[in-house]
């Protein structure tokens, strides 16, 4: 595993999934278009599965990195919606 593929690369020293750029992309996308700022973490977990012949136990750190990314993204979106006056 190279350092660029390491789940630790998503650590606290890197910018989170919800930056001004990702916010702009999310808000300007069409309603039918899917947008995931954590796609990089998802791709790493899929590569790990392929590399390990589908053995999920070998890729737990990658799955957790993706879950952490998604949680940070959803928390930030929720916070911004609350600030904007939305109820949900």
Automatic annotation (TrEMBL):
State the UniProt keywords alphabetically.
Disulfide bond, Mitochondrion
Residue ranges crossing the lipid bilayer per the database entry: none
SUPFAM superfamilies on file: Cysteine alpha-hairpin motif
Cell compartments where the protein resides: Mitochondrion intermembrane space
Predominant location? mitochondrion
| Bias (Basic and acidic residues) ranges | 18-30
Give me the ranges of the annotated region Disordered. 1-31
Q: Name one GO cellular component term.
A: mitochondrial intermembrane space
Q: Which GO terms of type biological process are on file?
A: mitochondrial respiratory chain complex assembly
The role this protein plays is: Required for the assembly of cytochrome c oxidase.
What is the protein name given in its UniProt record?
Cytochrome c oxidase-assembly factor COX23
Originating species: Sodiomyces alkalinus (strain CBS 110278 / VKM F-3762 / F11)
């Amino acid at each position: 595993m190279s350092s660029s593929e390491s789940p630790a690369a998503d650590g606290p020293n890197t910018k989170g999934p919800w930056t001004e750029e990702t916010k702009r992309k999310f808000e300007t996308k069409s309603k039918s278009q899917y947008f995931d700022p954590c796609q990089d973490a998802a791709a790493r977990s899929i590569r790990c599965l392929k590399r390990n012949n589908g053995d999920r136990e070998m890729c737990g750190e990658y799955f957790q990195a993706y879950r952490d990314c998604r949680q940070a993204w959803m928390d930030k979106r929720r916070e911004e919606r609350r600030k904007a006056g939305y109820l949900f």
